[in-house]
Backbone:
């Protein structure tokens, strides 16, 4: 059963993908993801889990490994009241759903760390199973939704080049 | 109302008469800058998968600075791959171990007013100092740009940071920046276009303007623009760049929405220090007196340009760093280092007890072996003091101007440089 990871404080790219391990393969970098703030994360995270973070999620560097490790570890979506611009673009380009949530909804009592959840990308909805709360997230513009559904920018371009022909 | 500088450049790049905030457009990219970390090693597999070539090799600038100097087999292999890729793809604008990308890019004349530029690094807004719309993107998006020569953006609102009056002596662009971080916070830029304007900005030399634009990243903005003027034109021409005849079209110092204007008075500004672990924890340096530390660092694209080395030397001339303190200096580019050497600046720093590191991202990026140890405290002229960025998770970093870093190195505690240099 997928769970919610509610992260405290501001989550920056150095915490998501620490500089010292940036030369390492993604599999090793992933074992250090969030270790500075949640040492249990990379061991316990499971396929389909969802992260709920505070405002300005992913602030810092342009390294897309910060989003890539989350996808690698099976995260189905990252939800936050706001995202740092480059992290937001990177996540979409890698096909990792990043949803903005109304700041006021962050106070809903059942949105706790470890809550059992169901996440619906198409409906932009997070369901908390413990008390059946349903939370509407802010949907994407259509062209970005398509980009994510294609699996990110690379498969999206592959599809485009197949129809239009490669630019080179 | 007329267009903002950001809208003017985006309209030009997207081939439209005008654009409005919120509008999604596809822009033609005038220049794409990459470094060794987010560059070839990450984009090459994607280009292969897409069976695509670089759309225009002359519009690509490649710079090695992150895994410099290579410290082990993995970093050496990354540099090797980078060089081979440049060669195989006909990238002639390849600056190998010449310094940090954001400083090398303009010093080699690659930037000019009105350009639409992407950079594979978060401090890419530095290019905004030249009146270029330059922003940071990740590697996958860079591969998309290399394959297509274009990128989508949502036209931003412009947030005007309006500065009046002159900066007092020993107060710098870095202090202005930390004060702005303290005021609006790291997310305050809302991924919009920040534009720095007003007489304080007009009187700043290019390398100080670069510090402002550089740290637009820390304000959470997409870009940090400064309207071009004669100072910009002089710099670009001296660097061998080509200034378009239309450059005055981009001399726009206005925001669409006056509610987005923030006003600052340079005259009242004191040297600033930002406490761990956020640039937004800024306050007057005098509020931090008697705090001890282990390492003073003058480094990075933010804080080790020629002008920053000159500032540090002004403090350190005829002085020695305190016992027990290490002062490390990593000049931001080889060219700036050579200029500082010719001017006797490097000698002053050395006589004061500084150790020199290579012209690369160094401790600021925390990629190499030179890092902060457990529980070490550092005062640094860099841009970011996130937890663990410069080394051990238990280390802590204070951010300040080169004047403040140098003065603190002399006294051994965090120090307002005016206490040493006289008011």
Residues:
């Amino acid at each position: 059963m997928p769970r919610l990871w509610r992260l405290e404080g501001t989550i920056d790219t150095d915490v998501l993908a620490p500089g010292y391990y940036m030369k390492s393969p993604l599999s090793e970098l992933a074992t250090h993801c969030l270790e500075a703030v949640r040492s249990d994360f990379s061991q316990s995270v499971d396929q389909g889990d969802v992260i709920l973070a505070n405002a300005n999620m992913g602030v810092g560097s342009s390294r897309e490994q910060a989003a890539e490790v989350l996808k690698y570890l099976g995260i189905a979506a990252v939800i936050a009241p706001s995202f740092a611009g480059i992290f937001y673009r990177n996540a979409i380009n890698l096909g990792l759903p990043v949803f903005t949530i109304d700041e006021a909804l962050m106070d809903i009592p059942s949105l706790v760390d470890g809550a059992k959840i169901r996440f619906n990308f198409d409906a932009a909805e997070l369901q908390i199973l413990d008390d059946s709360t349903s939370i509407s997230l802010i949907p994407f513009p259509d062209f970005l939704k398509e980009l994510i559904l294609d699996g990110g920018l690379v498969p999206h371009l592959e599809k485009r080049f197949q129809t239009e022909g490669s630019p080179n | 109302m007329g267009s903002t500088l950001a809208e003017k450049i985006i309209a030009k790049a997207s081939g439209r008469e005008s654009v409005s905030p919120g509008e999604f457009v596809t822009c033609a990219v005038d220049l794409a800058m990459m470094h060794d970390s987010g560059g070839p090693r990450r984009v090459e597999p994607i280009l292969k998968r897409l069976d695509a070539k670089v759309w225009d090799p002359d519009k690509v600038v490649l710079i090695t600075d992150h895994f410099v100097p290579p410290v082990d087999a993995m970093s050496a292999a990354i540099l090797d791959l980078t060089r081979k890729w440049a060669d195989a793809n006909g990238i002639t604008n390849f600056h190998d171990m010449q310094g940090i990308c954001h400083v090398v890019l303009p010093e080699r004349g690659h930037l000019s007013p009105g350009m639409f530029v992407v950079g594979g690094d978060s401090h890419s807004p530095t290019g905004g100092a030249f009146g270029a719309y330059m922003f940071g993107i990740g590697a996958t998006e860079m591969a998309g740009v290399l394959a297509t020569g274009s990128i989508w953006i949502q036209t931003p609102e412009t947030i005007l940071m309006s500065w009046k009056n002159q900066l007092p002596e020993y107060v710098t662009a870095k202090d202005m920046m930390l004060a702005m971080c303290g005021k609006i916070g790291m997310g305050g830029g809302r991924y919009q276009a920040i534009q720095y304007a007003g007489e304080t900005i007009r009187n700043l030399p290019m390398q100080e303007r670069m510090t402002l634009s550089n740290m637009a990243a820390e304000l959470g903005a997409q870009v940090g623009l400064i309207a071009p003027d004669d100072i910009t034109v002089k710099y670009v021409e001296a660097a061998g760049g080509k200034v378009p005849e239309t450059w005055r079209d981009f001399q726009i110092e206005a925001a669409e929405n006056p509610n987005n204007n923030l006003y600052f008075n340079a005259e009242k500004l004191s040297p600033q220090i930002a406490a761990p672990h956020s640039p937004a924890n800024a306050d007057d340096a005098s509020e931090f007196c008697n705090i001890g530390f282990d390492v003073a660092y003058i480094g990075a694209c933010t804080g080790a340009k020629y002008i920053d080395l000159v500032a540090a030397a002004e403090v350190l001339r005829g002085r020695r760093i305190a016992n027990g303190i290490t002062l490390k200096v990593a000049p931001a580019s080889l060219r700036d280092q050579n200029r500082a050497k010719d001017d006797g600046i490097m000698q002053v720093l050395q006589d004061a007890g500084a150790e020199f590191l290579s012209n690369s991202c160094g401790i600021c990026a925390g990629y190499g072996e030179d890092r902060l140890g457990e529980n070490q405290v550092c005062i640094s002229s860099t841009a970011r003091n996130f937890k663990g960025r410069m080394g051990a998770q238990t280390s802590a970093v204070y951010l300040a101007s080169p004047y403040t870093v140098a003065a603190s190195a002399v006294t051994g505690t965090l120090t307002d440089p005016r206490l040493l240099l006289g008011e």
